[in-house]
Design goal:
Elements (H helix, E strand, L loop, with lengths): L3 E4 L3 H12 L8 H11 L4 E6 L2 E15 L2 E13 L8 H16 L3 E4 L13 E2 L2 E8 L14 E5 L1 H16 L10 H9 L13 E7 L2 E11 L2 E2 L2 E2 L2 E9 L2 H13 L5 E7 L5 H4 L9 E4 L2 E4 L2 H6 L8 E7 L8 E6 L2 E4 L6 E4 H8 L5 H6 L3 E3 L4 H9 L12
Parallel strand pairs: 4-5, 13-14, 17-20
Antiparallel strand pairs: 1-2, 2-3, 3-4, 5-16, 6-16, 7-14, 7-15, 8-9, 9-10, 10-13, 11-12, 17-18, 18-19, 20-21
Helix pairs in contact: 1-2, 4-5
Bound molecules: coenzyme A (COA).
């Protein structure tokens, strides 16, 4: 069966392309919801696959900037990828991925990033797991910190329209320190963060916005929901933390101190916590977090040279990679990274690896030594792995706090 891939031209095509994934979520593709998506993704970033005149698959990309170590790069934020079950395993996804990555390349976006529904899908297209994250479920009685403290700042509730004004600047400040976080446009804030329709609440109450202030400035915030419940008269309520970010260690401590102390709940739950989150060392009994870790953000170097030159490094020195990129051939070959810039080279390679493995290492969350131990990178010169690890490591694990 043959199919064409091109970008959609109107709301109707867009809706049918998004429904390729929407159906798996049980989504009702209302016009209002589709228009909201279209406004964010835009028609020119939504590819659809056609077969015999019908749309059978879709793949979209948000245009945002991803924080990388010491920088911030234009990125295709891949989203709403799906193929109608009537046309699965005939190469529809492959054609969509090809069109999308070629488009990102032509636009000059050095990176693409995504959240994977299954770990088995995207490696073949050059994406690598670049960050770990996980969910926690902490029983109220184990919420004690190791070191008791008095909060140094104050907290106050914000109405959603106040949050829309007050929170984006502090988010921007925080996300620029954190590889793996991405920029949010005003529309993103309005539609995805502030707007809080019933269907996104999963049985819990509305979002509560809290600003944390110290010395007259907002230094962090939290968004959470109450999910009430009772069992034989006692609470089994959950406090679901949607996002909690502090710009300083004290802000993080005080915000989490507040969240964990909230009365009349049995459990605090949140998802997407990175493995180096301060909570692990703040709590007296971190085992009680019942942390379940999995893959977070996946990263693909659309343009190896621009991507490697676009981040900072933790050490001086140089390294030569022999990159194998079967899906985006323009990246294949030897690349020398020296003085923070990458260029093609004829020099002997230090490390051989696939584009997906380089994507895994790129944000500093997964080391070359780890990749080599799993057979995903090969050391060609003695000491090359630790040299590369020294260059790429960063002061924190990459963290993407939101699935897009
Ligand atoms: C996952 C999905 C997009 C795959 O689409 P598809 O058109 O069937 O994929 P293709 O036929 O282009 O397959 C390309 C390759 O990926 C493999 N593949 C596709 N889906 C896979 C999966 N879920 N697990 C493992 N491998 C998969 C195919 O076997 C094929 O392998 P090959 O390179 O060795 O030939 C489709 O099954 C789907 O829509 N699933 C439900 C929604 C979803 O998970 N979307 C992804 C959101 S992140």
């Amino acid at each position: 069966m043959s199919f064409d891939v091109r970008t959609v031209k109107d709301l109707d095509e867009f809706s049918r392309a998004v429904f390729a994934i929407g159906q798996y979520f049980g989504m009702t593709p209302t016009e209002e919801r589709m228009q909201r998506f279209l406004d964010q993704i835009t028609a020119e970033r939504m590819h659809a696959a056609w077969s015999d005149g019908a749309i059978v698959g879709g793949a979209g990309a948000f245009a945002f900037n991803l924080t990388v170590p010491g920088g911030d790069l234009a990125t295709a934020g891949v989203t709403v990828v799906g193929v109608y079950p009537t046309h699965r395993r005939r190469g529809v996804l492959r054609s969509l991925m090809r069109a999308q990555l070629e488009d990102a390349h032509e636009r000059g976006e050095p990176l693409a990033a995504l959240w994977a529904s299954e770990e088995t899908i995207y490696g073949r297209f050059g994406y690598g797991q670049a960050a770990w994250c996980g969910e926690i479920s902490l029983a109220h009685e184990y919420a004690r910190f190791l070191q008791p403290h008095e909060p140094e700042g104050s907290l106050r509730f914000l109405e959603p329209d106040e949050a829309l004004e007050a929170i984006p600047p502090v988010f921007e400040r925080i996300r620029l320190q954190w590889p793996g976080m991405f920029s949010r446009s005003k529309l993103w804030w309005e539609q995805r963060e502030i707007k809080d329709p019933e269907e996104r609440r999963d049985g819990a109450g509305p979002k509560r916005w809290i600003a944390y202030e110290r010395d007259g400035a907002i230094e962090g915030y939290a968004v959470y929901r109450h999910k009430p419940g009772w069992d034989e008269g006692s609470t089994i309520a959950e406090l679901r933390v949607v996002e909690a970010l502090g710009a300083t260690p004290i802000a993080d401590r005080d915000i989490w101190g507040y969240l964990l102390a909230i009365d009349w709940k049995a459990t605090v739950k949140t998802f997407l916590i990175p493995p180096d989150h301060p909570l692990f060392l703040l709590l007296a009994t971190p085992r009680r977090l019942r942390y379940r870790m999995g893959d977070g953000l996946w990263v693909r170097l659309v343009d190896v040279g621009d991507a490697l030159s676009g981040r900072r490094y933790s050490a001086d020195g140089s390294i030569v990679f022999d990159v194998r990129d079967d899906f985006c051939e323009w990246n294949t070959g030897r690349w020398k990274l020296a003085d923070g810039a990458a260029a093609r080279t004829d020099e002997d390679a230090d490390i051989a690896l696939s584009a997906a493995s380089l994507g895994s290492a790129y944000l500093g969350g997964i080391s070359f030594s780890e990749l080599a131990r799993a057979g995903r990178a090969e050391e060609l010169q003695d000491g090359a792995l630790s040299r590369a690890d020294g260059l790429f490591r960063w002061n924190r694990h990459p963290w993407c706090p939101e699935i897009f």
